[in-house]
């Protein structure tokens, strides 16, 4: 495979795309009241913009990837980004809530395939010892969106107009589209992926154990994260400025955790993941206690972000490296499973709060779920095929 541009340049273009998608996914959390006022719906109804997106990514992503499995990566990435741009233009011009919701559904369909393709291509163009860092780079766009894009979007929406946020995201998508056309290598597949072979991943015990860790363990993150803002307000007594600083520190921790975990070599991914999840579970269980002190609150938010997004690229890497029979589907499966966990965790948190659980009890449940994931990782470590995570062949710088 010949590449006209360096690996770093290609990964930078991928990061721009994942930044835009991450901003689309999470920026709405700071715009719900504006949606409600402008489109004449209840704030509770606007929550559908989050849940519908996550569920759609989890369900539509793998289906769309299966339907497009024989397409070459570069043209498919271009088409997916074009869909993304159109969906955000629809959102920016939405005359009512129903159209806005439809735009979210359209945007969600391309989320998992785009992330999956970017991660798979990042692995393919990288040397074996750089594959984890390549996946972290792709994921890095999402974490930077959480650190910078989401606060920026909330500010623009609050001071000016929420529609400008979607116009900005569409512009980022256009920049990425041009980058994809120019920079992305046109990888020629020796033979078109066979769907039957790709679906053989459903029999892969290594992949299923990792999916179980994410769904039953890592989803605990979202059980607590959903209520981070009200916890900061009610327990820590933070005002808007202090909450903004705390959320920025969460995003800063996310970026640092993401890129630090990207330096981990494939052969020690499992051991590092067990350690990272154990620390994350401890942070969640102690979270409400730390909120009693402003200084420790900031530290807790930083550690929460670092732990959450420090484990994500490791789990992504393990799924992609383990799913050897599904090089085309593996990345999409990883992205979809994380959004399924997002939806499950947020729903569980809402149910617990509705049933009068305290925030402290909710964080205990969340931390307990993470530790259950740690137990599953110990089991995974015993039964997984460790040869899958050893560098075998060379790739490109």
Automatic annotation (TrEMBL):
Spell out the Pfam families in the cross-references: MFS_1
Locate the transmembrane regions by residue number.
12-35, 41-64, 76-95, 101-123, 135-158, 164-187, 207-228, 240-261, 273-291, 297-316, 328-353, 359-380
Is the keyword Transport assigned to this protein? yes
UniProt keywords (A-Z) are: Cell membrane, Membrane, Transmembrane, Transmembrane helix, Transport
Which residue range or ranges hold the Major facilitator superfamily (MFS) profile domain? 10-385
Name the domain of life: Bacteria
The entry's localization annotation reads:
Cell membrane
| Membrane topology field | Multi-pass membrane protein
PANTHER family linked to this entry: CHLORAMPHENICOL EFFLUX PUMP RV0191, PURINE EFFLUX PUMP PBUE
Q: What is this protein called?
A: MFS transporter
């Amino acid at each position: 495979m010949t590449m006209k541009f360096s690996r770093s340049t290609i990964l930078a273009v991928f990061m721009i795309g994942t930044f835009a998608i991450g901003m689309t996914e999470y920026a709405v959390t700071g715009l719900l009241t504006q949606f409600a006022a402008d489109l004449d719906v209840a704030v509770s109804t606007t929550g559908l913009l989050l849940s519908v997106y996550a569920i759609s990514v989890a369900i539509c992503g793998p289906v769309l990837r299966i339907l497009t499995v024989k397409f070459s990566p570069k043209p498919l990435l271009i088409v997916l980004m074009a869909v993304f741009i159109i969906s955000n233009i629809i959102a920016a011009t939405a005359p009512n809530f129903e159209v806005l919701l439809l735009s979210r559904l359209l945007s969600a369909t391309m989320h998992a395939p785009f992330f999956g393709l970017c991660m798979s291509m990042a692995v393919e163009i990288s040397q074996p010892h750089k594959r984890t860092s390549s996946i972290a780079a792709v994921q890095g766009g999402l974490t930077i969106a959480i650190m910078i894009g989401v606060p920026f979007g909330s500010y623009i929406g609050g001071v000016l107009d929420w529609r400008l946020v979607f116009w900005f995201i569409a512009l980022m998508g256009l920049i990425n589209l041009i980058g994809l056309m120019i920079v992305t290598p046109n990888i020629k597949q020796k033979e078109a992926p066979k769907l039957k072979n790709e679906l053989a991943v459903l029999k892969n015990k290594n992949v299923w154990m990792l999916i179980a860790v994410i769904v039953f363990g890592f989803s605990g993150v979202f059980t607590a994260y959903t209520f981070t803002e009200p916890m900061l307000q009610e327990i820590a007594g933070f005002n808007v400025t202090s909450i903004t600083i705390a959320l920025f520190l969460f995003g800063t921790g996310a970026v640092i955790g993401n890129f630090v975990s990207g330096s981990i070599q494939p052969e020690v991914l499992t051991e590092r993941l067990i350690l990272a999840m154990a620390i994350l579970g401890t942070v969640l269980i102690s979270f409400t206690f730390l909120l009693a002190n402003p200084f420790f609150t900031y530290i807790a938010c930083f550690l929460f972000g670092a732990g959450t997004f420090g484990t994500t690229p490791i789990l992504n890497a393990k799924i992609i490296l383990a799913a050897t029979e599904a090089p085309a589907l593996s990345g999409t499966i990883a992205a979809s499973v994380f959004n399924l966990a997002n939806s499950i965790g947020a729903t569980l948190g809402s149910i617990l709060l509705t049933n009068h659980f305290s925030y402290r009890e909710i964080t205990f449940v969340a931390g307990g779920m993470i530790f259950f994931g740690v137990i599953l990782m110990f089991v995974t470590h015993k039964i997984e095929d460790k040869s899958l995570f050893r560098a075998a062949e060379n790739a490109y710088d």
